[in-house]
Amino acid sequence: MVHMDFFKNKIKKFQEKKMDEILFKIQFHESTKKKLEEEMKKIGAKDEKLEKNILYHSQMVAIWRGNEKKLRKQITDNSE
User: Fold this and answer.
1) Alpha helix locations (H) across 1-47?
2) 8, 78 in Cβ contact below 8 A?
3) What's the predicted TM-score (pTM) here?
4) Are 58 and 33 in contact (CB under 8 A)?
5) pLDDT in single tens digits along all 80 residues of the chain
6) Phi/psi zone of residue 77: left (φ > 0), alpha (ψ -120 to 50 degrees), beta?
7) Rounded to the nearest 5 degrees, what angle is found at the Cα of 29, between the Cα atoms of 17 and 51?
8) By the 8 A CB rule, do 78 and 11 touch?
9) C-alpha distances in angstroms, 47 versus 8, 13, 56?
């Protein structure tokens, strides 16, 4: 029983560390996307490079949100 608690604790700590990384990535890509959108508004013209970067960061936010959702489900499943 002691070994199970040890491993559950290790898994929990690992999952918490992963969640912190995921949340950091989401925050980074959201803030970068927002800065790029503000820059685009300032120039008031179409900029293909900026549009591609905004799209990239939007896609990364979506990917990391998916990862967050999966990890939250794993954490819930493991705690039952």
Assistant:
1) 2-43
2) yes
3) 0.86
4) yes
5) 567 788 888 999 999 999 999 999 999 999 999 999 999 999 988 899 999 999 999 999 999 999 999 999 999 987 77
6) alpha
7) 160
8) yes
9) 50, 44, 14
